[in-house]
# Entry
Amino acid sequence: MTTTGKTLAATHATLFLSLVVAILLAMFAPRWVQTEAGAWVVGILALVFVATLLILTSIASFADNIDNNSFSYLLRKSTLDTTFYPWALAAYMGRWFHPVDDLQSPLGVWGPVLLMATTWGMVVLGDVMRRRGKRIWPWLVVSLGFIAGSLTWPA
Amino acid sequence: MLKQRLMIQIGIAMAPITVVLLDVLLVGPDSGNELVQTIRSTGATPFIAWTVALFMGHWFHPVDGLKPVVPEPWNYALFGGLTLLIGILGFWVIDADVFSDWLPTLMVVLGFGAGSLLWPV
# Structure
């Protein structure tokens, strides 16, 4: 396996583990926030995670070599490297802006699990296609992500 | 290079967990709460859906190197004006009761189209 292949495999493994943790949190954390102490713990955790991601994004913004550097340019450029961001953002949009009020996922508790699985599958598929010189169009990723979010995780 | 890879790994590890943590905090243990109602079925709904989708179209439009169909600065005036109009109509003019189930999705489709055509990055 080449260095690039190893890096890609490590990225996929990291994403997989992260999605598993996210599923467990989605299942159990709503119970934790019913108590004040639990809500504090979840709140502080969320704050730390958001702050860290913002710092990492800021470092990335200043460290790249793109002209007219901005968050938007970085995000657009990222679609050449991964399907993660358009898919994840669109799935979250599907959660909120689906076409039916009080929509319940036909998959029940398996809905979020399927969403996490398809998220991982979409990222891996995008990476495999990219290594073959092909790319999944960002608008198609957005459309599929919106549908997936609507069906598996409607609010 | 190594640091950059490490940062990417950390970011990928944290992003899904962060989304779920924030969602749990905002939505809470019950569905149908105030936040869900605000985003889906109030006067704010068209504005929120349109604005979010406008940014999605801005970032994830179909063609690399796409230019706005309306030249600058008129494209800013056009999508800014449309956003203002949607905000005014949603918040002050149209009764939220008439908003239908599919309105958020419609605003997403229109917002994505507007973001792609008028404001591609």
About this structure: Helices of chain A lie at 3-32, 36-63, 71-78, 84-97, 110-131, 138-152. Residues 1 and 84 of chain A are 23 Å apart (CA to CA). Chain A has a mean pLDDT of 85.
